[in-house]
Amino acid sequence: MIQVQNLSKSFQNIDAVNDISFTIEKGEIFGFLGPNGAGKSTTLHMMSALLKSDTGTIHIEGKNSHENAEAYKHLIGVVPQEISLYEDLSAYNNLIFWGKLYRIPPRKLKDSIHTTLELIGLLDRKDDLIKTYSGGMKRRINIAAALLHNPKVLLMDEPTVGIDPQSRNHIFEVIETLNAQGMTIVYTTHYMEEVERLCDRIAIIDSGKIIAQGTQSQLKELVQTKENIQFEFHSLSETHVTQLRQLLPYTMTHTKNKLLVESTVNELSTIITASNKLQLQIKDIHLNKVNLEAIFLSLTGKQLRD
Fold first, then answer.
1. Position 306 pLDDT exceeds 60
2. Of 164, 186, 271, 292, which residue has the fewest beta carbons closer than 10 angstroms?
3. What is the pLDDT of residues 56-76, one digit of tens each?
4. Torsion of CA 56, 1, 78, 213, to 10 degrees
5. Which residues touch 168 (CB under 8 Å, ≥6 apart)?
């Protein structure tokens, strides 16, 4: 549905986006994960036709972002990182304004506003001024404005920045509902837990380049890091370690009273049973999962939020 090929954009000799390519299937939630300044927003600005690329092409359903600009723009809804609302207008009148820019007929616009306000859970607040809204509520109205013309693709640029956990969870539920209805969504964030929850496939982007992309399972296969469990015992001797190695088929690393076992949480009970058999007293257990933070660190040598 979406084909992006060899996309690049520079600002004063800084390569904000450097020759990236990707394809997004219809009905996918595709996530861009990377730190601030990685090129996520610049990519979305080019996909939303707000910014012209230096090189490369973007097609949605065969429509080019510049050669077929008007038809292309009707296919997309854009949720910017910044709040794009008029504080002294009500939510309803804000949506009337944005709907008229899309040239939606009055009766259809009225129905669309009702539907979108109901979806985001703010129908009862439609006549309140935006300046009386919380940050999370404003972001939900931002999403509603992008949905008025019933786009096929929703582009979301860090839509949960600076909001409370309850509002964030409500936005997640809206995204999941839209996706269940068949909408294709492109989502940028530097929060790994968001893409872990929402996205079918993920592009890890850093310094303007996509360094890896795929499902979470595919990304985990790219790195050498394996899931492991760290046990801390009140006392652990070399003899105990030798006995554990005889009882358990896992790779183990021993340091003082700590034992690092290359295993998953599914085998936790087996390891505890073996420890109890040797009358070892467990002081602490810590599971080190292979998550997107660990994958990013392995691929780039730095933390996701550096």
1. no
2. 164
3. 999 999 998 888 888 999 999
4. -70
5. 136, 160
